[in-house]
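Task card 7
Instruction: Convert sequence to structure tokens.
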Amino acid sequence: MQEIKQEKSPIKQRILQYLGRKGISMYDCYSKTGITRGVLGQNNGISEENLSKFLAYYTEINTEWLVLGIGSMLRSNEKTKVEQYVSQNNIASNDESIIYKLYKEKDIEVGQLKEEIGVLKTRIQQLEAYNESLRNQAGADRVTDTFTNLPLVDYEEDCPPVERPSSSKHPLAGKA
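Output:
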């Protein structure tokens, strides 16, 4: 019977990536979060309970990145900055919601700009490929022009004169 080798879940892999980047040992992670020792080393998934423990202690990690692999590893400090500003300036909860709405609008705008950048990058790649194809075509025309500019020599006296080919896009090709 053949054994199926199971790999660590993507979430576990990202947890280990985070710990490695932060220089946190697995022992420290286990002791600070309460996750049972050895769980992160096992080749399987991670339970909701252990994931909750991890996220409760390591609050700076971006949950969208951890779960889906989307975005940056660390949470944006923008929300934290807003919260600090609100607490330092004694802003009422009504005003706080206005600030949060502004933050969300900016967040949406940033997302749209990222999308637009992606579209523009794709367009640049298409134009570069088109440019390259034009360069290749120009190179082929130069080869044709080189051969059409060679002197025509009839090697036998009985043969009629040879005409130059005119299939090149070059305006002087085929003209004597």
